[in-house]
Design brief:
Elements (H helix, E strand, L loop, with lengths): L5 H10 L4 H103 L4 H118 L4 H5 L8 E8 L6 E4 L12 E6 L2 E11 L4 E8 L10 E3 L2
Antiparallel strand pairs: 1-2, 1-6, 2-5, 3-4, 3-6, 4-5
């Protein structure tokens, strides 16, 4: 976007090339334009900073959305693993009941075996049948032990799997807590950023209003500058006419200030109209044609002189105003007004 201030500053640089009188009048307007330009650049930088803050908030919002999605996935995974853990727990309970039943059956078989042994010892004639029954019951007992061992091994495997599922569930729950905490932090940061954004928007509106006011002031400054230029041109033309008319323009404008003269009247011609006065200060002291000095006597003003001719150490002037009844005399003091 083009900088609306640069052309104004460029025009201010060009206008400095005008005559010294115009430059002296325009200087105040150029300083105001330069100050307004610096303020405008500051406002542009602040607008760029606001755009950066808005981009940062958009990034934070995307990160919060990703965290919410991860949280939902972790919650789903936690529910699945809790279901698996419940199934494994049910299987462990069922196997525990089966193991208890097998243990009870084993105890019953051992009791039957002991009873058979007692019968075999008590009844000699039924020894063979008792041995057969005992062998059968021992076979049943061995089968029951093998089944018990198999179920015990399976129970241990299921318990190990359940422990692994519990550990995995703990990990998922930890990740869930971490994600929830991150989501809370992100939500808090989002609220902070939202508050900052609201403040920045309000500040942006205020700065926009200030910028509009600054543009209005720049327009007013340009109008004032053009008016000053016109006045400077008119004043330069007047000064040029005065210079052509013989007026000491350098004295009038202060380019060469009137020197501090301390001189004495050395000669007075009262026959001339108006009277002519010669005093002992010339171009060596900085006196120039057209300068006006005061003639004093005993601290009181006697007359005023306007220089007509300047020599090395003397100047000739005419009396342009005199006090009523007073006449300039040799020895009177000539001073700068």
């Amino acid at each position: 976007m083009p900088d609306p201030v640069t052309p104004v500053v460029a025009r201010g640089l060009v206008r400095r090339a005008l005559p010294w009188a115009a430059g002296a009048l325009v200087l105040g307007g150029g300083a105001r334009l330069a100050h307004d330009e610096v303020r405008l650049v500051g406002v542009v930088h602040q607008a760029a900073s606001l755009e950066g803050r808005l981009s940062q908030q958009a990034g934070e919002a995307q990160r919060a959305a990703r965290l919410e999605l991860d949280l939902a996935l972790l919650r789903d995974e936690a529910r699945v693993r809790e279901g698996r853990l419940a199934e494994a727990t049910a299987r462990v309970d069922a196997l525990s009941a089966a193991v208890e039943e097998a243990a009870a059956a084993l105890a019953s078989l051992e009791a039957a075996r002991d009873e058979a042994r007692a019968r075999a010892e008590a009844t000699g004639g039924a020894l063979t049948a008792a041995h057969s029954d005992l062998a059968a019951r021992e076979a049943d007992l061995a089968h029951a032990r093998r089944e018990l061992n198999a179920r015990t091994s399976l129970l241990r495997e299921i318990e190990a799997a359940a422990a692994e599922q519990a550990r995995e569930l703990g990990r998922v729950r930890g990740a869930l807590v971490t994600t929830q905490a991150a989501l809370d932090v992100a939500a808090e940061r989002g609220a902070t950023l939202e508050a900052d954004l609201t403040a920045e928007r309000r500040l942006a509106r205020e700065r926009g209003e200030a910028l509009a006011s600054l543009h209005d002031r720049l327009g007013e400054a340009e109008v004032a500058l053009r008016s000053a230029e016109a006045r400077a041109q008119r004043d330069a033309a007047r000064l040029e006419r005065l210079a052509r008319a013989g007026v000491n323009v350098a004295r009038l404008t202060g380019e060469r200030p009137l020197p501090d003269i301390r001189a004495l009247v050395v000669q007075v011609d009262h026959d001339a109209v108006p009277p002519t006065v010669v005093f002992d200060a010339g171009d060596g002291a900085g006196v120039e044609r057209g300068d006006v000095f005061v003639v004093r006597r005993d601290g009181n003003e006697v007359a005023r002189l306007e220089v007509d001719e300047v020599r090395g150490h003397y100047s000739a002037a005419r009396v342009v105003r005199a006090q009523r009844g007073a006449r300039v005399r040799p020895g009177d003091q000539v001073r700068s007004p």
